[in-house]
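Researcher: Next entry: SDR family oxidoreductase (Alkalicaulis satelles).
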Amino acid sequence: MPHALITGANRGLGLEHVRQLLQRGWTVTAAVRDPQGAADLKSLDPGDGRLRIEAYDASDPGAAKALQSKVSGPLDIVFANAGVMSRAGFGSAAGEDFITAMQINAQAPLALAEAFADQVARSQLKVIALQSTRMGSIADNTSGGMYAYRASKAALNAVGKSLSIDLKPKGVIVLILHPGWVKTDMGGPGGQLTVTESVEGQLDLIARANPAMSGRFFHVSGQDLPW
Ligand SMILES: NC(=O)c1ccc[n+]([C@@H]2O[C@H](COP(=O)([O-])OP(=O)(O)OC[C@H]3O[C@@H](n4cnc5c(N)ncnc54)[C@H](OP(=O)(O)O)[C@@H]3O)[C@@H](O)[C@H]2O)c1
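Model: Predicted structure:
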């Protein structure tokens, strides 16, 4: 039975990934900051042991290793999905929020990849997926602002590219993904896609992952995005 690990799995895109993967018969380890409070996540439990909920705080540098010690066996997908957005603009953008975004959006996914690469390599699908955004594209930036979010996701993209090269000998495929503009707490009600639509698209992309896709930056539609 395939097994996925999803971070930020208590709401938004992460929660929907858990829902759809469980529906497809997968085992899912859902990593969340507050397992006790994750009511929506717990409500998805099919009661057959396929949903495992673990504590994980991406702002803790030791969190990935601690999580790894609790998850055994091959992992077909490790999805670094947890993320934060800072809306601080020019004049107040260089504060603590900037460091926090870098930690959660870029450093934590790298720590996850370091902790789980061997378990991913032992699986069938062998995918590490990074939840990026086209706001991390430098070429696509025509509106400025959003310094911490853009910079941290650009850093995540750089991390993904290096991982794709370093993990190639293990056969691990690293996908850098933009989910679209999605109606979630972060995306807001104006988003163009529902979580259902976005996650269906992301899981379809992941299902056809192959080595030629590793280290590329994909829109949920499957198109390559510019760096
Ligand atoms: N929505 C969009 O339009 C859009 C577009 C492009 C990219 N993305 C990316 O998609 C990912 C998910 O976003 P979303 O739209 O689903 O946002 P969301 O509804 O705000 O969910 C964010 C998730 O990240 C978790 N998280 C935040 N800080 C964390 C930490 N320190 N440790 C562990 N988990 C943490 C949250 O957990 P808590 O509930 O504990 O805070 C929550 O589960 C993010 O990486 C985001 O950048 C979203």
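Model: Note for the record: The chain has one domain: 3-219.
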